Amino acid sequence: MSPIVIKKAILLAGGEGTRLHPFTLYTSKHLLPVFDKPMIVYPLTNLILLGVETVYLVINAVHRAQWEALFKSLDLSVDILLIEQERPDGIPQAISLCESYLDGDPFFLALGDNILLGSGLLNRFCSQISDNPGDSIIISYKVSNPRFFGVAELDDNGELIKIVEKPTDIVSNLAIVGLYKFNSDAPSLVRNLKKSARGEYEISDLINQYIAMQKCQMLACNEASDYWLDTGTIESITSATIFLRELNLSGIKVIGNLTKD
Question: What distances in angstroms separate CA 115 from CA 46, 73, 145, 226, 230, one per listed residue?
Answer without folding.
Answer: 9, 21, 18, 11, 6
